[in-house]
Each structure stands twice: as C-alpha cells, then as structure tokens.
Amino acid sequence: MESNKPKLAIVGTGMSGLACADGLGQHFEISLFDKSRGLSGRISTRRGKAHAFDHGAQYFRAKTELFASWLKPFEGNGHLQPWTPRHVYFGADGSRKAHRDVSSKFVFVSGMSAIGKVLLADRPDWKLYLDCMVDLVTGNAGKIFLHCGEERFGPFSHVVLAMPPQQVQALVTPNIAFADALKSAQMIGCHSLMLGYRDEEAPDMDWDCAHFEDEILGFSAVNSTKPGRSGGFAIVVQTKHQWSELHIENNLDTVGSIMKERFETITGIKTDASGYNRVHRWRYASTQTAAASEGSPYLLDKATGLSATGDWCRGSKIEDAFLSGSALAAHLVSQLT
Ligand SMILES: Cc1cc2nc3c(=O)[nH]c(=O)nc-3n(C[C@H](O)[C@H](O)[C@H](O)COP(=O)(O)OP(=O)(O)OC[C@H]3O[C@@H](n4cnc5c(N)ncnc54)[C@H](O)[C@@H]3O)c2cc1C
Description:
Strand content: 25-35%
Strand order of the largest sheet: 7-6-15-16-17-14-18
Helix content: 10-25%
Shape: globular
CATH architecture of the largest domain: Alpha-Beta Complex
Number of helices: 8
Bound molecules: flavin-adenine dinucleotide
CATH class of the largest domain: Alpha Beta
Number of domains: 2
Structural class: alpha/beta
Number of strands: 20
C-alpha cells in the first residue's frame, strides 16, 4: 500500500545511514541505497569457504548513553556480545609485553556486518536497493531524483548522503552550502590482510589482539576468537594508515607480501595460511581531519534538500557514525515534519 509519509532516500548503509534511517523511520517513507552487495559499509565481514574475517571495523565501544541504549535490543537478542581479547604490544625495539586494556569492547554476531541485516529484519517497511551505485543526483529540494546507471529513483523530498566526504563530493554541486566543510574533512586509507588457516596449520597463539609500534603494521586480531564466529582459525592484520596512504595505489599482492613478511618478523607467526590469504584496500578507512561543521555533527543544505552524515563529521569510530546519523535524523524530523 502507498504510504502518505514524505519520501526520503539515504545513500549509504553504513552505521551513519542506518542510524539516520532508524531515527527517521516513523515519519518518512525510507529508501536505502548502497553500491555494495551487502549492508553495513566499513563494518564489514568477508566470508571465504571455511573462514570469516571482520576486515573493516574490529570492535567498538559505547561511550555515550544514546549509543548504549540504542544497542540494548541487540544485546538482548544475542546479536551484540562483549569481546575480551588478550592483548599484546610489540615495541619498535623488538620488545613484547602483555598490554592491559580493560575497556569494554563489543562485536556484532555472527560477524561485524550483521548489524545491517539484523536491523533491517525488524524494519520491513524500509525499501532497500543494494548493488546500486548512485552516480547522479538531479532535481530540486522537495523533488530530488537519484540515478543508478540507467535507472532513476524518486522523487524524494530529501536525500541523505551517508558516505565518506570524497564520495559525497562526487554527487553534489561545487557550490553546495556545505562545500567548505566537506573539503575540510580528510580521510586516510588502510590495508587489511586476511589469513585463514586450515586446522592442521593453525598457529599456537597466546594473544588475540596485537598492537604494533611499527611503521607498517598497526593492529592485528585473531578473528576466530570473537564470540559467535564460525569457520576456521582466522587472523586479520591491519596497516598503519599513514603507510597505506603512501602505498594506496600499489598492487595488492605486493602490499600483501610486505605485510606478511613484517608480521612474521615481528610476531614469529607464519603467514602461509592455505585456507584464505588475501588483502583488501580501504581507500577511505579513517578520518584524519573531521569536517569543520560548526557544532552540528552533520552537514545540511536546505536549498537543495541534501544532507551529509558519517563518522568524519565528528570523529573516526562506529560510535561517531551513529551519533552523526542520529543527530541528523533528529534535526530532519524537527524541520521537515
Ligand atoms: C580497516 C578499518 C578498521 C576500523 N576499525 C574500527 C574499530 O575497531 N572500531 C571502530 O569503532 N571503528 C573502526 N573503523 C571505523 C568504522 O568502520 C567507521 O567509523 C564506520 O563504520 C563508518 O560508518 P559510516 O556510515 O560513516 O560510513 P561507511 O561505513 O563507509 O558507509 C558508507 C556506505 O556508503 C556506500 N556508498 C558510497 N558511495 C556510494 C554511492 N555513490 N552509491 C551508493 N552507495 C555508496 C558504501 O558502499 C558504504 O556502504 C574501522 C574502519 C576501517 C576501514
């Protein structure tokens, strides 16, 4: 049945887009678009035949009451669980020491990307278009169209662009009201190496989470020690953002070889994992400079009916994406309904 609520589109189904949709849902007819085949953006899980890897965000914290209370239902139904890894710290001088980190860490179950699917299962009235790269936005405020190749969607009364700033920039005119704030936001890359071991080759580990004082490597997690994971022994290794930025256009096999060599040298753990062995490049992994958005953790241009949200509007974490998306939703509800 056609709803008589105003139609609103959200491009990007990462945490900011999902949080925004959730805050708007009762007041608008929501359509969600994403260029990927799955939901959740950088909160992502790659599945091989016998292994699974959270190759984007590893875990998250909930420092604000708003985020903690939004997460509560997922905790209740088992889709959110605490993770208490054993930490180790590898120093630049070759030292190695147990690292004490008692802060609460949470993961989504059965993989980080589960949050999108779980949320959508509970919101059957949201329209979802995956594998749908929005390449053009046309029209005016109140009557906006989204184009994905040959297809056109709309009209929408408002469009939220919930994606990294460079991707927003590709869809808006250079004179949009928030052009300067958009330009001020800088993102930086990262590479994730995924190693899936067959049972007989799984290394004997005495840590689940490693932090590196190193020019190339930043962090590593034994993914299979997170709660609710299925599949074989799996390690994710991530670079230092600054290193990736310098090597962002490099061939992924070359990057993989460098990462493996460094990981073996520092940890002594072999990387010839024959179950799965790949590298993923994140061009816009983390916020280097957040948008200068004058107090609001989102960007809005009333004249065009376009707004932008994402972690980069206030920080670099999942919680920042959530707070940006939900603040934008609260503002749009107060202004447009
Ligand atoms: C390697 C890595 C490790 C991280 N580790 C952590 C961590 O441990 N803890 C933590 O809290 N955070 C971590 N983060 C950061 C965290 O993932 C982000 O803060 C958060 O997921 C950002 O959500 P978002 O909605 O702002 O953007 P995104 O998740 O990037 O969502 C943007 C979405 O927009 C879609 N999109 C873009 N352009 C278009 C288009 N033209 N048409 C259609 N769809 C489009 C994309 O496909 C994507 O799904 C990590 C990130 C990376 C990459």
